[in-house]
User: What shape does this take?
Amino acid sequence: MKQETFTVAYPKQMRPSKFDGAHFICYLNESPADYYADKDSEPTAGFSYTGTMPDGGTLVVCDELNRDKLINAVIRTKYLQTEEDAVKTHQLMVLNAKAGLSELAEEKIVEYMLEWNEFEQFRKEVIELVDSWLE
Assistant: This one.
């Protein structure tokens, strides 16, 4: 079931904050946006965030402001641990096939390489994002 999402604009970039003992609220999917302080004000440059929480944030499972834990938590917003494990297993299958240690159909090699590249691109973006929060 697809979760409802909310997009909210803010006057400044948002950073993660502790939500409860097991969660942080993170502001993902950032884009430039017009921010209105109230309904009668002129817009100023701001940032919008789209997430599953009414304030535009996304709740992630993370118990402390720790780089590695935040990276893992944000990755989990797109990939369950089992899905990440499958992507990595597929990459090992590709490497074994290329090394001549096993056979794998060319179509599967292409599919698994695309899957790996998508995962790696997302992981790099998450690392950059989390590092920007901790600067």
Notes: The beta strands are 6-10, 17-20, 23-26, 31-35, 44-51, 58-61. The longest helix spans residues 106-133.
